[in-house]
Description:
The structure holds 2 protein chains of 2 kinds.
Chain A: H1 2-16, H2 19-46, H3 55-67, H4 69-72, H5 79-87, H6 90-95, H7 100-129, H8 142-170, H9 177-190, H10 204-210, H11 218-224, H12 230-260
Helix pairs in contact in A: 1-7, 2-3, 2-7, 3-7, 7-8, 8-11, 8-12
Chain B: H1 2-16, H2 19-47, E1 49-50, E2 53-54, H3 55-75, H4 77-80, H5 82-87, H6 90-96, H7 101-108, H8 115-131, H9 138-169, H10 181-186, H11 196-204, H12 213-219, H13 226-230, H14 232-251
Antiparallel strand pairs in B: 1-2
Amino acid sequence: MKKYASFFRIRFVNALQYRAAALAGMATQFFWGGMLLLMFAAFYHSAPESFPMDFQALSCYIWLQQAFLAMLNSWAFENDIFEAISSGNIAYELCRPMGLYGQWFVKAAANRVARAVLRCVPVLVFAALLPAPYGITLPPNVGAALLFVFSLFLALGVVVAFTMVIYIITFYTISPTGVRMAATSAAELLSGSLLPLPFFPEGLRQLAELLPFASMQNVPLRVYSGELSGQAAAWSVGLQVFWLAALLALGVWMMHRALHRVVVQGG
Amino acid sequence: MKLYAKFFSLHLRSVMQYKSSFFLMTIGQFIMAFSAFLSVWFLFDRFYQVDGFTFQQVLLCFSVTLMSFSLCEGFFRGFDTFSYTVRNAEFDRILLRPRNEIFLVLASKIELSKMGRLLQAFLVFLYAIPTSGVEWNFQRVLVLVLMLLGGVCVFCGLFLLYAAICFFTIEGLEFMNIFTDGGREFGSYPMGIYGDGILRFFTFVVPIACFQYWPLLYLLGKNESLWCMLSPLVCIVFLLPCWAFWRFGVRHYQSTGS
């Protein structure tokens, strides 16, 4: 456990070095969140009665999404890992006295958390200062807040476990870009990062809520505003736990099989 | 031009060496653009119209923006990844060659897999042209062509600007994505829906609205003024300051060493 903790710390400190990048990223996120809200506002004014969420809840959703983008997005992959696989450096990593799965998992999680820690506070403060329906509010009660934090970490776990599966597929195809793009765009759409799931047509929405992608963003961001509460929230968080366990098991199993027949490229 | 054709066939042959990888990437691009299309569709499935624009009219705007963006992204890729060129001093080599440096950067990378996105945009375009309710005549077709041309100019200008900033910062700056990727994402809808402040910004500072919102009003007969008809020409003018800034950057270029 100590090994993993120190591995986490190294990656964390490393990622904290890029402060200018974080600043530029924050500017982008203010703008992005603002534009998205203006777009939704235009739809809201066209037909308020068909708006599926409370506008305030939507604002919370968008700002949290921007604040934790670095943590929960499905398109950030560790280039080190792809390089290690295609260049053969993986041989060194296999020599270390810790499991490869654990090593990579911790690495990816640490990078995501570090980037999010730098960015989330300013974005949230800024969002809190905005006028009423466009800003972010506090969660309606302590229960929702606690559940949000719990669900956020589960979501992080699910995202990282999902990316792990993609890394392992890379063992089999040396050029991973195609697989990666297809997986990423499916995840983008179905996790609710392009469009919150309540905006999906009926039927498709119910299906999407069952898939592992919904556990990546949809659940924590909706739990926060109380839009998802009570039994529905408990069910969704339970589903997150299930998908986390399933993806972890799948990843470990695939890794085990892949390492049996790994051929190190390069010299 | 002949030289560019040569570069083009060089890039084409090099990607054809890895056919399956190339096709997978093209399909990936297609799916990626498709999910953007789906989210627009889902919204209109629920709301039917936004700010007086119907689904098909927004699709016309969506496809024009996406087509011009993917053309630029494919052919201007050298500027998009320019920070690498500066960082490993590739640019020194470019300056030594007896050709215009913009041309050489342009020819150094052509990303053919972006055509997946272009294809998708083109299909949407074909669907939107007859269904958008525009009564086509000669002027309107001309305006549509100008819209595409203007879009290509704006995105090219933005990529050029992005690359020119790399001369000073060495790193690529993420905030420029606001205009390039943001222009693509938010340009899917006519800029008018975001409110007056945003519309003014995207008309006078970064003229994205000049190739979609204003000429779209003309096409739909909502505003028949000459100004709306010719607004895509502003986009061509936008290239000038970008080019000037690039020249300024080249003059201040200091090699970063090996």
